């Protein structure tokens, strides 16, 4: 369980109880929240430290590296076709968002979890008709993201809150983590829009410091983009530049030119910006689930464990964990993994079978 | 002058799974050479090529934690940073199973025959000083490596002589052990008061700041610089309080004038009011440029500490052959 006194956010961000604001900022509440945050910062007695904006060198390095942290090119197209992949992704992200809100993780953790999910799904075919694999993948991606980014990471069992239909043993989660790591070749320090956003906000403000409202709003938009599919084909730098332009544009007219350096193309940023603005206009502000209190969460998890059958074991045997840089071998390994999972059909216990429900969508 | 041989860039590390037996069939362990943040390190020979490597081994017990964050962070960061000649190169990652059925990870690194801690200790044992030019080229490489790491948005957070690997013949120096490293990222978030080796820990960390950044690594670099010159650690405290007192006794107790905001840090108290001692007394054996650079590395106010990149431009390094390093 997360310690109740634990504060997950820095002064410019939100404490756990305010985490919903990252996902659903309302215009009226912004100034109030900013004052609360400032007061909180002062109360804690820490001096307000201004961190350096990412340097030009740093940004250039990120732009150079970011392609290695994106899903395979055909993934966006596959999702736009709808079908299984999109459903898997939507279910996984819904669950990730619930747990993220419950534990008050930072926005980068959510962004990383979605990055891992997308990259994995673009490379690896989950066996069809086994919804528990979606759940297990969600747990693994969020767990890995939290380990990369959070200072406190709940144990595997405690992480599985948010009405999970299956609860997996720690060793099963670990095996899935290892599969995700192998598939993504351990490139978990992903470049994301968060790597750039402060840089672009500065540029669009002619070097001035962005307001806290702009930072919070940017984080909200980045997560909304990550959750949706409209910008999947765009690079993180393009998403960040477009988000910065959208946010800065709410305060004053902006010239996108100023954000387009280091081979970030203005045309692509403009298209990305259009996609973001279309999405924002289309959706009402997302309403996150209310985070449950620690005690009710605990009892729920407990009760859940008592009634849900043990997670499938032996599914991820050693053969599933093979991955070679050679594409043919990787395909063979993936196929082998799928076969191994398919072989489990006959072992599906009646209780597990009966737990499956059609996802209404 | 020693010449660094630039090896051709190896292919990206592959990840392979065999049984533990199979992974170890590829390598012959020669000797255990140390422990990293989370595992034992062995000198080993790759059977197929005869190449000498360092194997870093970690068991993954199937407990609640799953893959340990330290292993996850180190591998991920090395995948990002290994192309720089001043960061130790990760050659491969092997995954296997031991006799008890536990998953074992082997990180395969280029082998470096010593580390800075052993190097310094060797001189100390002989009652000799490290030659001034050697200090300079080691410091140049250290600043360059740290500059690269910071330039990629990463804090090391555990820089100390033991984590700086060396090749005695070439005097090459490389940064290792990124298990405690962190990305510098926005939105800025709170870091815990995680374990950093005390002697090289920056005062803002000791005073409980959680919003620290690249200057914490520069403080460590400054401590290492002083140690290279004198063969002795500059601030060898044995508790957090003792560490702070060591620093304050030697550099003077900070106040709001020299370090605005220091009084608001969580662990700030009333401390005895010591006056600063001259660096030339604390660290005898440097020239004036060296003292100027060291002073800038050990500035109390984090924002005033020199950056690694700026340090490389400092006059102290003017006579380093920058093409070679």
Instruction: Compute the average pLDDT of chain A.
Output: 65
Biggest sheet strand line-up of chain B: 1-5-6-4-3-2
- What's the shape of chain B? globular
Q: What is the helix fraction of residues of chain B, given as a range?
A: 25-40%
CATH class division of the largest domain in chain B: Mainly Alpha
Architecture of the largest domain in chain B in CATH? Orthogonal Bundle
Cα-based radius of gyration of chain A, to the nearest Å: 21 Å
Number of helices of chain B: 10
| SS class of chain A | mainly alpha
In this structure, how is the largest beta sheet of chain B organized? Answer: 6 strands, mixed
Structural class of chain B: alpha+beta
Could you please describe the fold and organization of this structure?
The complex is a heterodimer of chains A (361) and B (325). By secondary structure, chain A is mainly alpha-helical. Among the domains of chain A are: 71-189, Cyclin-like (Cyclin A, domain 1); 193-283, Cyclin A, domain 1, CATH 1.10.472. Chain A is 55% helix and 0% strand. The longest helix of chain A is centred in the N-terminal third of the chain and has 20 residues, at 84-103. Chain A starts with 19 loop residues before the first helix and ends in a 6-residue tail after the last helix. With 325 residues, chain B is α+β, with helices and mostly antiparallel strands. Helix content of chain B is 31%, strand content 18%. Chain B contains 10 helices and 11 strands. In chain B, α6 (215-230) packs antiparallel against α9 (288-297). The radius of gyration of chain B is 21 Å and the shape is globular. The model of chain B is unreliable at 1-21 and 185-195 (pLDDT under 50). At the A-B interface, α3, α7 and α9 of A face β1, α2 and β5 of B.
What layout of secondary structure does this protein have?
The complex is a heterodimer of chains A (361) and B (325).
Chain A lengths: L19 H4 L6 H15 L11 H10 L9 H6 L3 H20 L3 H17 L7 H19 L6 H4 L10 H14 L13 H8 L7 H16 L8 H14 L16 H17 L11 H14 L19 H16 L7 H6 L6
Chain B lengths: L14 E3 L2 H6 L1 E9 L4 E7 L5 E9 L8 H13 L8 E8 L5 E8 L3 E2 H10 L6 H20 L2 E2 L8 E4 L4 E4 L6 E2 L19 H4 L8 H16 L9 H12 L27 H4 L5 H10 L10 H5 L13
Parallel strand pairs in B: 1-5
Antiparallel strand pairs in B: 2-3, 3-4, 4-6, 5-6, 7-9, 8-11, 9-10
